Amino acid sequence: MVRKLLFVCMGNICRSPAAEGVMSHLLARHPLGETLVCDSAGTIGYHTGSPPDSRMQVAAQARGIRLQSRARQFHPRDFEAFDLILVMDQENYRDVIALDPHNRHRHKVRMMCEFCTQRSDREVPDPYYGGAAGFEYVLDLLEDACQGLLRHLEQETSRR
Fold first, then answer.
1. In degrees rounded to 5, what are phi and psi of residue 149?
2. How far apart are CA 126 and CA 157, in angstroms?
3. Which residue has the higher pLDDT, 111 or 1?
4. Torsion of CA 123, 55, 11, 149, to 10 degrees
5. pLDDT band at residue 1, thresholds of 50, 70 and 90?
6. Does residue 87 sit in helix, strand or coil?
7. Quick check: 120 pLDDT over 80?
8. Active site positions, annotated
9. Is the dihedral of CA 157, 12, 66, 68 positive or negative?
């Protein structure tokens, strides 16, 4: 059974495509890679069709991670299409939950940092208005969270 993961931030040009890229990179050499599909979206449509921010691409490429997605806006049909929706911050969480007025899918929406094992951050900060160090920090945080998420999914799979 294929499970689908959707990573969500505001514009879908920095954090969520980076999370998608980090997770895809980890899955490329992991047994669960055959059963997990990753995508990303933003809570706003301002950047629809745009590639990831060039600064995030450079930072990710330095780690051997390719970011290939194009920005798109989260749509209520994503609740049905994805098994797990991972948001970067509380604002993203509120925006996504607002599109589920009957609370049918709230159980699918989780904070990305819930899966961190090395860092205590509760949100993935938006690096858009900062410098290169912000993009590096976000990638460090996402690598931790994605590794923790992968362990969580392994445990879920072994319980089935």
1. -60, -45
2. 32
3. 111
4. -40
5. confident
6. strand
7. yes
8. 9, 15, 126
9. positive
